[in-house]
Amino acid sequence: MKTLILTASALAFSAGFAMADTIRMGTEGAYPPYNFIDDKGEVAGFEREVGDELCKRAELTCEWVTNEWDSIIPNLLSGNYDTIIAGMSITDERMETIDFTQNYFPPAASAYMALSAEADLMGVVAAQTGTIQADYVAKSGATLLEFATLDDTVAAVKNGEADAVFADKDALAPFVTDGGEFVWSGDDVPLGGGIGVGLRKSDTELKDKLNAAITSMKEDGSINALITKYFGEEAKTF
Amino acid sequence: MFASCADPSQLEGLAWLMCYLTTGKHMLFYGSFFVVLLLMVITAPVALLFGFGGALAARSRVAPLRWFGKGYTAMVRGVPDIVFFLFVPIALDQGLEYLRHLWACPPSDAPVWSNNEFNVCAAAKLPLSSSPQIWHEAYGFTLAVIAFAIVFGAFAANVLYGAMQAVPRAQLETAEAYGMTHRQVTRRILIPQMWTYALPGLSNLWMILIKATPLLFLLGVEDIVYWARELGSTKSAIYDYPHPDWRVWYFLGLLAFYLGMTKLSESVLSRITARLSRGQATMAGEAQRKQAGGAGA
Q1: Residue A99 belongs to some domain of the structure
Q2: What is the number of structural domains in chain B?
Q3: Cα separation of B102 and A80, whole Å?
Q4: Inter-chain residue contact B119 with A19, CB threshold 8 Å
Q5: Are A138 and A144 in contact (CB under 8 A)?
Q6: CATH of the domain at B135
Q7: Single pTM value for the model
Q8: N or C: where does chain A have the smaller number of CB atoms within 10 Å of the terminal CB?
Q9: Do B240 and A16 lie within an 8 Å CB cutoff?
Q10: Which residue of B101, B112, B118, B128 to mutate against A (max A Cβ within 10 Å)?
């Protein structure tokens, strides 16, 4: 075991200082179409394409890493990866611990999904732990039921544990269009300041590079093209 | 994997299932079974070694060593496992990176721990950000093995300590009467005889270890439970192989795996028990002796 560590570190060490500019991109891998693990076992989705393009423009080598949503901020802070690119909305609360680039996805609507359109939205509402939607439900006066993943929240509505689920409308959309079992309920709610790349506060250099790359992608319309590709024609663009 | 799987939307029935079960993602799932088995195979002897050391230290006549042995078992047994599994890998990781920071980084005024952040220079990262993913996984796995070994080692230490105390005093006294030193008594009489008393406790620990492996995901190692949940969850049309929530089938598969492991372990452990009871002054040993004698007469 000890030798394993030693060999590992020796090899890692000799592997070189040359490519110090490798950026490890942390994502959840369970939030289609933003980010998910495709059938080849690789990270895919809207954020994979945006991230790869950002790295290309900022001339960085990028490596994708998946991490549970629950511990995605602590692991960024302890340096296990350098960015969070996981559908994370820019909020004041998160800004207290981490920093964000400018948004690469405009402020999007969140929506309630239930088994019937007349569901009791002030009853029990499921949401994913640590999301802005969970905050919103808690403040709305409904009973909040938290789950670790989006899939668990949807399952809770299906088996009657919760009256409705509240999440990003784009993430819930496939359940409504594919299944036929679920319907939208109530009005859409605009939340958050858009989605940005999360960074350590001390990483100002990386922040500037990524901001410049996002600006250039906004200017030449390539971000809009990707949004339309993954979220449909009616999705909000820049 | 197969050429016929190139366009999954055209497939149906068995052909679809065959292609589905051989996707790259499923291969990772099958691979994770070996990760779990590897963890058990490595952790068990390491934990036993930790336990053995802990038990011998706790019995030691040197006071500081005895305090260390007792302190180790008492502390680990008293703190919830999950706290240890979260604490040990993070503490080890940051500790190692900090040591490398002192040695490999250019001197700087920036504090390593500040404002919730842990910052070392790129050269001190372990493994380096630029090293291939496999090293990151091996490193995570190693930290996991150490965390498991520390926790299970403490329980094993207590079991072995108890087993050593259970060896009849008369046996040790006889050895002393023959003029053996303390060390010789320990090595020749105490340790060979204690295993039969330790085995029930150790077999419990092994069973718990088998079932504790899902904690691996907590440590960032993608284990069978992670993949079962990931593969089973609802797949919308954005995936090549869309399907509804199939988690129950994947978890039934895991159930079969865990039950199979339990069955296998039980039969192996009962053989070891029989082997260790041979010639011992215990009820099981006595029964074996009578049976053998009866057959002879």
Answers
A1: yes
A2: 1
A3: 19
A4: no
A5: yes
A6: 1.10.3720.10
A7: 0.79
A8: N
A9: no
A10: B128
